[in-house]
Amino acid sequence: MEDLNLLNSIPVDEEYGGFEYLEEEEASSAYSVASSVYNFRVENGRRYHDYKDGHPFPYDEVSEENEQVLHAMILLLFDNKYFVSPIDESALHCVVDVGTGLGLWAEGVAERYPHVQVVGIDTIIHERSLQPNCSFILQDATDEWVLDDPSMKFDLVHIRNLFVGVRDWDALYAQCFEKMNSGGWIEQAEMEIDARTDDGSELPDSQIVKLCKFVDDMTAATGRDFRVSSNLKNAIEQAGFVDVQEQRVKLPLGPWASDPKFKDIGRFFERFYKTGLQGWLLQICIRYFGWTLKDVNDACVKAFQEINSRQQHMYLTL
Questions:
Q1: Cα 200 to Cα 174, 252, 275, 311, distances in angstroms
Q2: What is the pTM of this model?
Q3: CA–CA distance from 248 to each of 139, 164, 262 (Å)?
Q4: d(C-alpha 190, C-alpha 230), whole Å
Q5: 100, 82 in Cβ contact below 8 A?
Q6: 223 torsion bin: left (phi>0), alpha (psi -120 to 50), beta (else)
Q7: Who contacts 299 (Cβ-Cβ below 8 Å, separation ≥6)?
Protein backbone atom coordinates (compact mmCIF):
# COMPACT_ATOMS: atom_id res chain seq x y z
CA MET A 1 0.00 0.00 0.00
CA GLU A 2 1.21 3.49 -0.81
CA ASP A 3 2.55 5.32 2.24
CA LEU A 4 0.16 8.21 2.69
CA ASN A 5 2.94 10.27 4.32
CA LEU A 6 0.42 12.19 6.38
CA LEU A 7 0.91 14.07 9.62
CA ASN A 8 1.41 12.05 12.83
CA SER A 9 0.30 15.07 14.81
CA ILE A 10 -1.68 18.00 13.49
CA PRO A 11 -0.30 21.49 14.25
CA VAL A 12 -2.92 23.80 15.74
CA ASP A 13 -3.82 27.14 14.20
CA GLU A 14 -3.27 29.57 17.07
CA GLU A 15 -6.11 31.79 15.82
CA TYR A 16 -8.63 28.92 15.80
CA GLY A 17 -10.43 30.03 18.99
CA GLY A 18 -11.19 33.37 17.38
CA PHE A 19 -12.95 31.96 14.32
CA GLU A 20 -16.55 32.95 13.95
CA TYR A 21 -18.87 29.98 13.63
CA LEU A 22 -20.82 30.10 10.37
CA GLU A 23 -23.38 27.54 9.20
CA GLU A 24 -25.23 27.48 5.92
CA GLU A 25 -28.90 28.29 6.33
CA GLU A 26 -29.98 24.92 5.01
CA ALA A 27 -28.56 21.80 3.48
CA SER A 28 -28.54 21.58 -0.29
CA SER A 29 -31.74 20.23 -1.76
CA ALA A 30 -30.02 19.16 -4.98
CA TYR A 31 -29.49 15.55 -3.93
CA SER A 32 -31.66 12.95 -5.56
CA VAL A 33 -34.39 11.06 -3.70
CA ALA A 34 -34.73 7.30 -4.15
CA SER A 35 -37.74 6.11 -6.09
CA SER A 36 -40.96 5.78 -4.12
CA VAL A 37 -41.78 2.47 -5.79
CA TYR A 38 -39.42 0.76 -3.37
CA ASN A 39 -40.12 0.18 0.32
CA PHE A 40 -39.22 2.98 2.66
CA ARG A 41 -40.63 4.06 5.97
CA VAL A 42 -40.56 7.37 7.82
CA GLU A 43 -39.77 7.48 11.53
CA ASN A 44 -39.34 10.67 13.54
CA GLY A 45 -39.08 12.75 10.39
CA ARG A 46 -36.32 10.63 8.78
CA ARG A 47 -36.67 8.07 5.99
CA TYR A 48 -35.35 4.50 6.25
CA HIS A 49 -35.21 1.71 3.71
CA ASP A 50 -36.62 -1.77 4.39
CA TYR A 51 -34.49 -4.09 2.26
CA LYS A 52 -34.35 -7.31 4.28
CA ASP A 53 -34.18 -6.15 7.93
CA GLY A 54 -33.50 -2.56 6.98
CA HIS A 55 -30.70 -0.34 8.22
CA PRO A 56 -30.57 1.59 11.51
CA PHE A 57 -29.36 4.75 9.78
CA PRO A 58 -31.69 6.89 7.62
CA TYR A 59 -31.51 7.13 3.87
CA ASP A 60 -32.79 10.55 2.87
CA GLU A 61 -31.65 13.97 1.68
CA VAL A 62 -29.64 14.64 4.84
CA SER A 63 -27.85 11.29 4.71
CA GLU A 64 -27.10 11.86 1.04
CA GLU A 65 -25.43 15.16 1.86
CA ASN A 66 -23.49 13.34 4.58
CA GLU A 67 -22.23 10.84 2.00
CA GLN A 68 -21.31 13.61 -0.45
CA VAL A 69 -19.26 15.35 2.23
CA LEU A 70 -17.44 12.15 3.21
CA HIS A 71 -16.59 11.43 -0.42
CA ALA A 72 -15.17 14.92 -0.96
CA MET A 73 -13.22 14.76 2.31
CA ILE A 74 -11.54 11.43 1.51
CA LEU A 75 -10.64 12.52 -2.01
CA LEU A 76 -8.96 15.57 -0.48
CA LEU A 77 -7.22 13.42 2.13
CA PHE A 78 -5.86 11.06 -0.54
CA ASP A 79 -4.85 13.86 -2.94
CA ASN A 80 -7.66 13.08 -5.37
CA LYS A 81 -6.77 9.38 -5.57
CA TYR A 82 -9.67 6.92 -5.53
CA PHE A 83 -7.50 4.19 -4.01
CA VAL A 84 -4.03 3.88 -2.49
CA SER A 85 -3.42 0.16 -3.07
CA PRO A 86 -0.28 -0.43 -5.21
CA ILE A 87 -2.14 -1.42 -8.36
CA ASP A 88 -0.81 -1.02 -11.88
CA GLU A 89 -3.64 1.08 -13.30
CA SER A 90 -3.04 -0.22 -16.81
CA ALA A 91 -3.64 -3.77 -15.50
CA LEU A 92 -6.82 -2.81 -13.67
CA HIS A 93 -9.83 -4.41 -15.35
CA CYS A 94 -12.64 -5.06 -12.84
CA VAL A 95 -13.45 -3.21 -9.62
CA VAL A 96 -16.28 -3.61 -7.11
CA ASP A 97 -17.52 -1.01 -4.63
CA VAL A 98 -19.23 -2.77 -1.71
CA GLY A 99 -21.82 -0.63 0.06
CA THR A 100 -21.70 1.83 -2.79
CA GLY A 101 -24.43 4.14 -1.43
CA LEU A 102 -25.00 6.93 -3.93
CA GLY A 103 -22.34 5.38 -6.15
CA LEU A 104 -20.03 8.40 -5.93
CA TRP A 105 -16.84 6.34 -5.71
CA ALA A 106 -17.98 3.83 -8.33
CA GLU A 107 -19.02 6.52 -10.81
CA GLY A 108 -15.81 8.45 -10.20
CA VAL A 109 -13.59 5.43 -10.83
CA ALA A 110 -15.57 4.53 -13.96
CA GLU A 111 -15.13 8.05 -15.31
CA ARG A 112 -11.42 8.23 -14.53
CA TYR A 113 -10.66 4.73 -15.84
CA PRO A 114 -12.94 4.14 -18.84
CA HIS A 115 -11.21 0.81 -19.59
CA VAL A 116 -12.25 -0.60 -16.19
CA GLN A 117 -15.55 -2.36 -15.47
CA VAL A 118 -16.94 -1.03 -12.18
CA VAL A 119 -19.71 -2.72 -10.17
CA GLY A 120 -21.44 -1.15 -7.18
CA ILE A 121 -23.25 -3.37 -4.68
CA ASP A 122 -25.77 -2.09 -2.14
CA THR A 123 -29.25 -2.64 -0.75
CA ILE A 124 -30.28 0.72 -2.23
CA ILE A 125 -31.61 0.77 -5.79
CA HIS A 126 -29.77 2.84 -8.39
CA GLU A 127 -30.79 4.36 -11.65
CA ARG A 128 -28.66 3.39 -14.63
CA SER A 129 -25.16 4.82 -14.38
CA LEU A 130 -24.14 7.70 -16.64
CA GLN A 131 -20.89 5.83 -17.23
CA PRO A 132 -21.20 2.93 -19.71
CA ASN A 133 -18.59 0.92 -17.79
CA CYS A 134 -20.39 1.20 -14.43
CA SER A 135 -23.31 -0.90 -13.19
CA PHE A 136 -25.11 -1.43 -9.89
CA ILE A 137 -26.46 -4.55 -8.24
CA LEU A 138 -29.19 -4.55 -5.60
CA GLN A 139 -28.30 -7.15 -3.01
CA ASP A 140 -26.92 -7.87 0.45
CA ALA A 141 -23.16 -8.17 -0.06
CA THR A 142 -22.94 -10.88 2.63
CA ASP A 143 -24.97 -13.19 0.34
CA GLU A 144 -23.58 -14.97 -2.72
CA TRP A 145 -22.86 -12.24 -5.27
CA VAL A 146 -25.10 -12.58 -8.32
CA LEU A 147 -23.18 -10.79 -11.06
CA ASP A 148 -24.27 -10.09 -14.62
CA ASP A 149 -21.19 -12.04 -15.67
CA PRO A 150 -20.82 -14.98 -13.23
CA SER A 151 -17.19 -15.46 -14.29
CA MET A 152 -16.21 -11.90 -13.35
CA LYS A 153 -13.33 -11.59 -10.88
CA PHE A 154 -12.14 -8.31 -9.37
CA ASP A 155 -8.72 -6.69 -9.19
CA LEU A 156 -9.84 -4.31 -6.45
CA VAL A 157 -12.56 -4.50 -3.80
CA HIS A 158 -13.37 -1.13 -2.25
CA ILE A 159 -15.28 -0.71 1.03
CA ARG A 160 -15.85 2.56 2.88
CA ASN A 161 -17.80 3.62 5.97
CA LEU A 162 -19.80 0.40 6.13
CA PHE A 163 -19.34 -0.18 9.87
CA VAL A 164 -22.99 -0.62 10.94
CA GLY A 165 -24.30 -1.76 7.57
CA VAL A 166 -22.92 -5.31 7.91
CA ARG A 167 -23.90 -7.91 10.47
CA ASP A 168 -21.72 -10.78 9.22
CA TRP A 169 -18.27 -9.51 8.29
CA ASP A 170 -16.88 -13.01 7.84
CA ALA A 171 -19.48 -13.72 5.15
CA LEU A 172 -18.70 -10.43 3.40
CA TYR A 173 -14.95 -11.00 3.37
CA ALA A 174 -15.49 -14.57 2.15
CA GLN A 175 -17.36 -13.20 -0.87
CA CYS A 176 -14.64 -10.61 -1.48
CA PHE A 177 -11.97 -13.32 -1.39
CA GLU A 178 -13.93 -15.72 -3.62
CA LYS A 179 -14.63 -13.08 -6.26
CA MET A 180 -11.11 -11.63 -6.39
CA ASN A 181 -8.47 -12.22 -9.03
CA SER A 182 -5.16 -13.66 -7.86
CA GLY A 183 -2.99 -10.72 -6.88
CA GLY A 184 -5.99 -8.44 -6.35
CA TRP A 185 -6.44 -6.01 -3.48
CA ILE A 186 -9.08 -5.20 -0.91
CA GLU A 187 -9.10 -1.64 0.40
CA GLN A 188 -11.32 -0.57 3.29
CA ALA A 189 -11.65 2.71 5.19
CA GLU A 190 -13.55 2.85 8.48
CA MET A 191 -13.74 5.43 11.27
CA GLU A 192 -12.54 4.75 14.79
CA ILE A 193 -15.30 6.19 16.97
CA ASP A 194 -12.98 7.57 19.61
CA ALA A 195 -12.67 11.35 19.90
CA ARG A 196 -9.31 12.55 21.26
CA THR A 197 -7.09 15.57 21.65
CA ASP A 198 -3.29 15.61 21.75
CA ASP A 199 -2.93 18.86 23.66
CA GLY A 200 -5.35 18.52 26.58
CA SER A 201 -7.92 20.87 25.04
CA GLU A 202 -10.81 18.44 25.64
CA LEU A 203 -13.60 20.16 27.55
CA PRO A 204 -14.60 18.71 30.93
CA ASP A 205 -17.52 16.27 30.60
CA SER A 206 -17.30 16.45 26.80
CA GLN A 207 -20.53 15.46 25.06
CA ILE A 208 -18.62 14.31 21.99
CA VAL A 209 -16.49 11.96 24.07
CA LYS A 210 -19.58 10.69 25.91
CA LEU A 211 -21.31 9.83 22.65
CA CYS A 212 -18.22 8.02 21.39
CA LYS A 213 -18.22 5.85 24.50
CA PHE A 214 -21.99 5.29 24.21
CA VAL A 215 -21.52 3.38 20.96
CA ASP A 216 -20.44 0.35 23.01
CA ASP A 217 -23.97 0.25 24.47
CA MET A 218 -25.40 0.74 20.97
CA THR A 219 -23.36 -2.21 19.69
CA ALA A 220 -24.53 -4.44 22.55
CA ALA A 221 -28.18 -3.48 22.01
CA THR A 222 -28.29 -3.89 18.22
CA GLY A 223 -25.71 -6.53 17.42
CA ARG A 224 -24.19 -4.14 14.89
CA ASP A 225 -20.52 -3.41 15.42
CA PHE A 226 -19.74 0.30 15.74
CA ARG A 227 -16.08 -0.50 16.41
CA VAL A 228 -15.39 -2.76 13.46
CA SER A 229 -12.29 -0.72 12.63
CA SER A 230 -10.47 -2.16 15.65
CA ASN A 231 -10.55 -5.69 14.16
CA LEU A 232 -10.32 -4.99 10.43
CA LYS A 233 -6.81 -6.26 9.83
CA ASN A 234 -7.36 -9.50 11.72
CA ALA A 235 -10.74 -10.20 10.09
CA ILE A 236 -9.37 -9.61 6.59
CA GLU A 237 -6.40 -11.89 7.29
CA GLN A 238 -8.72 -14.59 8.65
CA ALA A 239 -10.59 -14.51 5.31
CA GLY A 240 -7.37 -15.58 3.56
CA PHE A 241 -5.88 -12.27 2.43
CA VAL A 242 -2.12 -11.79 2.80
CA ASP A 243 0.19 -8.77 3.00
CA VAL A 244 -2.53 -6.87 4.89
CA GLN A 245 -1.38 -3.36 5.80
CA GLU A 246 -3.04 -0.81 8.04
CA GLN A 247 -2.59 2.95 8.18
CA ARG A 248 -4.27 5.44 10.50
CA VAL A 249 -4.97 9.08 9.72
CA LYS A 250 -6.17 11.71 12.19
CA LEU A 251 -9.19 13.72 11.04
CA PRO A 252 -9.57 17.09 12.80
CA LEU A 253 -13.13 17.82 13.92
CA GLY A 254 -13.33 21.43 12.81
CA PRO A 255 -10.86 23.73 11.00
CA TRP A 256 -8.41 23.98 13.88
CA ALA A 257 -5.31 22.70 12.04
CA SER A 258 -2.70 25.18 10.84
CA ASP A 259 -1.89 23.01 7.79
CA PRO A 260 -4.14 24.26 4.94
CA LYS A 261 -5.03 20.78 3.72
CA PHE A 262 -6.03 19.56 7.17
CA LYS A 263 -7.89 22.78 7.86
CA ASP A 264 -10.10 21.99 4.85
CA ILE A 265 -10.38 18.35 5.94
CA GLY A 266 -11.52 19.65 9.33
CA ARG A 267 -14.25 21.72 7.67
CA PHE A 268 -15.47 18.68 5.75
CA PHE A 269 -15.31 16.46 8.81
CA GLU A 270 -17.26 18.94 10.92
CA ARG A 271 -19.97 18.98 8.26
CA PHE A 272 -19.90 15.18 8.06
CA TYR A 273 -20.35 14.91 11.83
CA LYS A 274 -23.14 17.46 11.95
CA THR A 275 -25.11 15.97 9.07
CA GLY A 276 -24.61 12.46 10.43
CA LEU A 277 -25.01 12.51 14.20
CA GLN A 278 -28.81 12.65 14.49
CA GLY A 279 -29.22 9.78 12.03
CA TRP A 280 -26.62 7.66 13.82
CA LEU A 281 -28.45 8.05 17.13
CA LEU A 282 -32.10 8.40 16.24
CA GLN A 283 -33.56 4.95 15.59
CA ILE A 284 -31.29 3.05 17.96
CA CYS A 285 -31.66 5.41 20.91
CA ILE A 286 -35.45 5.61 20.59
CA ARG A 287 -36.01 1.89 19.97
CA TYR A 288 -33.52 0.44 22.42
CA PHE A 289 -32.89 3.07 25.09
CA GLY A 290 -36.23 4.83 25.47
CA TRP A 291 -35.01 8.22 24.32
CA THR A 292 -37.45 10.70 22.83
CA LEU A 293 -36.87 12.69 19.66
CA LYS A 294 -36.18 15.69 21.90
CA ASP A 295 -33.55 13.70 23.82
CA VAL A 296 -31.76 12.85 20.57
CA ASN A 297 -31.89 16.42 19.29
CA ASP A 298 -30.71 17.79 22.63
CA ALA A 299 -27.74 15.43 22.59
CA CYS A 300 -26.87 16.58 19.06
CA VAL A 301 -27.23 20.26 19.89
CA LYS A 302 -24.94 19.88 22.90
CA ALA A 303 -22.27 18.20 20.77
CA PHE A 304 -22.60 20.83 18.03
CA GLN A 305 -22.31 23.67 20.56
CA GLU A 306 -19.13 22.06 21.80
CA ILE A 307 -17.67 22.14 18.29
CA ASN A 308 -18.91 25.69 17.73
CA SER A 309 -17.13 26.89 20.87
CA ARG A 310 -13.85 26.45 18.94
CA GLN A 311 -12.11 25.53 22.20
CA GLN A 312 -11.16 21.90 21.46
CA HIS A 313 -8.62 20.47 19.04
CA MET A 314 -10.42 17.17 18.73
CA TYR A 315 -9.92 14.48 16.12
CA LEU A 316 -11.11 11.01 15.21
CA THR A 317 -9.02 8.46 13.34
CA LEU A 318 -9.70 6.91 9.94
A1: 42, 14, 27, 11
A2: 0.87
A3: 30, 20, 15
A4: 9
A5: no
A6: left
A7: 207, 211, 281, 285
